[in-house]
## 1
Amino acid sequence: MRNLLLFIIKNKDHFVFAFTFILSISLLFNRNDENMSVIRGFSSDFVSFLSSPMVQIKSLAIVNEENQYLREKNLQLNLQLESILYAADENEKLRELLEFKRSTKLNIIPARIINKGIQTNVKSLTIDVGRLNNVVINQAVLTPNGVIGKTIQTGENSAIVQSISDNNFRLSVRIMPSGAVGILRWYDTNVCKVYEVQKNVDINIGDRVITSGFSKIYPPKLPVGIVSGVYDERGSYQKVVNVNIQNDFESIQNVFVVINE
């Protein structure tokens, strides 16, 4: 308390000035004559002029905060929408797989692709079924759209599948309705070529290509693809047939392994 009194006494001139200034301002603004109205108006404009930048800055800060919030909500909604669309697409694919399993006479088991390209010298897929599921080497692997390969290695709970897109893959096929047979090999993105087809056979774009049944691995009449081009080989009694594979190898997630017929 003593220190406070000493501080006030030491700075009494400042306190007197502040008190008289506040009192003068109060008396001026409490008068009702016309001169004071002009002063009040000028003071109001001056205060408004000084406050305007601060108000704008505050408004910009609020708008920026709202924009950030809206961007976050927009991102959350987009992620939710993508999740819903993905679930709907996956549900549709699973329905197709279930319908295929119900309609086929083959003894098949479902599998899920858990890895791609694990082999360095073979284009391959890894599936989540193995010997415990009666999967052995040289069993056909397919989807409702057609053959995608065969098993080449098996573990207890997984197996490696040689993809039809591997350059060393060969498949004996039959072209319908002509019944012409040939050997199918991978060529380019979702396109295969069938060689050793007799030139005098009538083959048209849009014809179906199925497994011939000549192989012990692939049962007959499994879907393979659709004819997209027919070319005669010069100086030969054979023709080459382009076949579009209906499977999209980049998006395949579920397959079936043919255990037996």
## 2
Amino acid sequence: MRNTRTYLTAAAIIALAAGVAGCNGGAGTLNSGASIDGNWMSTDGVTATTFRGGGFQTRVLATGETVSDGSYRMVDGRTVQITMRSAIRQTTSVVNCNLVTPQNLACTGAEGQQFALTRSS
């Protein structure tokens, strides 16, 4: 089971990194009150993340399993700092994200891994 979790996490990170380039184009209008509250999906459709009131949870869509949770804060109108606890690796890390457009969030982890999320309805 642990190998399956490791594989799913690695696959999601690799697929998400490939999607970052697609999120860096286009100029969206953001105001100083921009928020990431709501539902977001990984660009490969493997995971869904819900941000609400300073906390978040990410789960695998196929199984419903929670793979990470934690807290977040808006640093400014475009920058989000996420403190993430991995349920798989039992570690805590900081991820910095850029709200590229109101619908696209491009993130980089402390170890340089990149991933992207798209706002879902």
